[in-house]
Design goal:
Pfam families: Cu_amine_oxidN1 (PF07833), Trypsin_2 (PF13365). This protein has 371 residues and is mostly beta strands. It folds into 4 domains: 75 residues, no CATH class; 80 residues, Thrombin, subunit H (Beta Barrel), CATH 2.40.10.10; 93 residues, Trypsin-like serine proteases (Thrombin, subunit H), CATH 2.40.10.10; 87 residues, Pdz3 Domain, CATH 2.30.42.10. It has 6 helices and 30 strands. The N and C termini lie far apart (49 Å).
Length: 371
Amino acid sequence: MVKTALKALLAVTICVTCSVVVLAADSVSVFVNDQPISAEAFIQDDSTYVPLRAVSEALGAKVEWDGSTRSVYIETSEETVVPNIIEQVSSSVVAVVGNYVGAGAASYSEYYSFGTGVIIKSGGVILTNAHVVRDMENLTVIFKNGESYSGIVQYRDDVSDIAVVKIDKLGLTPIAIGSYDDLRVGETVIAIGTPLSLTMRNTATKGIVSGKDVSVPGEHFAFLQSDAATNQGNSGGPLINLKGELVGINSMGVQNADGVSWAIPSDTVQYVLKQFETNGKVNYPDLGVTFEQSWEANIGLPTTKGLSVKSGANGGLAQGDVVTQINGILVHSFTELHEALKDTYTAGDISVTRIRGDAEEVVQVTPSLKN
């Protein structure tokens, strides 16, 4: 808990925690964590002044004024911040439900499936997992207040396990997407979703970031690991930080293991969404050869060994070569290879550092695009 005394301070200059939009000479709109607040603000000497109480309470703090000492006391703790963040974000979280494809039911029955989604655009655009909607028909999106809307799958990418659903509804509240790079291990995170039953819509659980850039066997990209409890039905829901920003999409847990949940990091989410908007699908660059990773990488041990070319040939790559860098980024595993391509490839050739015999050389390789 943090308690701060500010002598006779009635307004503060806001530089980081909220954004300010000047609408007219005498009119200022203030947003805290992308949420508008009702407060009279003014600009003076190129600084924006906002009532202290309005901003502090919007950030989840408790504010008290001691008139005898003319002091303002601001208290912040997870006990005050977490409920406010959950309330703020819940309007952006939905349940996604439908029949299994081929179940032959016109309405929901024992043959239905469900998961979670989160609004990313006010015009009815919702993010979820690809596996939530893969075998789903008669898709319906249900809000916390029980309102429901028919939905269609606009985009789906099974490799990243990300899909976009569209409903015919305007004026929704999109979630803000946070920086994965700035997220730290040990930071508090909150999962919101629909675990186990549709009656448990918008259930919230709290935990910490347990690990970043975690390689999961059989998966393409790295994952964010937390110990926030998730269950069947949480898939597709947001993992948020204490700013109310999405830092991951809850994707999977480990059966019979407590405190282990994996989420698709926000940087992967943004990469996939950009590809959807640009190409209508996700194009994955393929170097045209088959790689083999070391035994250390196979069992998750640290290693300095690169990736061996097991078969095939493409440009400067041939069987027996060992690839150590992709566009200047060191790679020691399949996951690191895919992450390097995600972070650096836009178009054209790929710079590959390879070892052939005793010689190390940088070669240019032309990839093919697969989806």
